[in-house]
Design a protein that fits this description.
The chain is an alpha/beta fold. It has eight helices and seven strands, in the order H-E-E-H-H-E-E-E-H-E-H-H-E-H-H. The N terminus is likely disordered.
Length: 215
């Protein structure tokens, strides 16, 4: 499990003595470690089995995830599931989570617009992610987008420079950063979306190849 010199978070007081994924999910349901819980419907912790060999980490839940209580169930999640299938990975075989477990949003009429979590919110939530890494101990860790990558690899990390590379870190035996699926949906036109999607599939094919190697 990754170690850190970060200040103690309120989350530490919630961590179960036996931090299995199920125990962590149950404990996180009552998390109030940062102000985001006040405007969220519920904690959105993770999906997938503790026995999963690949762990995917995104930024934070969105509107549909906040309502469903599961990560990556909206349009970005559907795109991720399709990319995983094309790369040869069944989503059911993956453990999927986010660096922040509550939906951050601002109202615009009747719509709740997603907001990027702050450094303080990411730091407050980090013990949950450290505990997940310790419980799952994935063979391959995939960081989806800049927020996830910088949360775990440092603020100077650039996904645009290092995407699709195996990274030298003790977080997991194999660590790779790639784009967040939502960035593909925000591409300016169909050609750009197609190109960005193919890049995501190519990165995930590297993951599939690593998972197929003999243990």
């Amino acid at each position: 499990m990754p170690t850190s010199s970060r200040p103690r978070s309120a989350v530490h007081d919630l961590l179960p003595a036996d931090p299995t994924v199920e125990a962590l999910r149950a404990a996180a349901a009552g998390c109030t470690a940062c102000p985001l819980f006040a405007d969220a419907t519920q904690t959105v912790f993770s999906s997938g089995s503790q026995a999963a060999r690949v762990m995917l980490v995104g930024e934070a839940p969105g509107d549909q995830e906040d309502k469903a209580g599961r990560p990556f169930v909206g349009p970005a999640g559907q795109l991720l599931s399709r990319a995983l299938r094309e790369a040869g990975i069944e989503r059911a075989q993956a453990y999927v989570t986010n660096v922040v477990k509550h939906f951050k949003w601002v109202p615009k009429g009747k719509v709740r617009l997603h907001q990027k979590p702050s450094a303080a919110e990411i730091s407050a939530c980090r013990p949950w992610l450290d505990a997940e890494l310790g419980a799952v101990q994935p063979d391959v860790l995939v960081l989806l987008g800049a927020t996830a990558a910088q949360a775990l690899l440092g603020p100077s990390f650039r996904v645009t420079k290092h995407r699709g590379e195996w990274l030298d870190t003790d977080l997991a035996p194999r660590v790779l950063a790639t784009v967040h699926p939502s960035s593909i949906l925000r591409a300016p036109d169909e050609e750009a979306r197609t190109l960005a999607y193919k890049g995501l599939v190519t990165d995930l094919e590297l993951v599939a190849g690593a998972l197929s190697e003999p243990g």
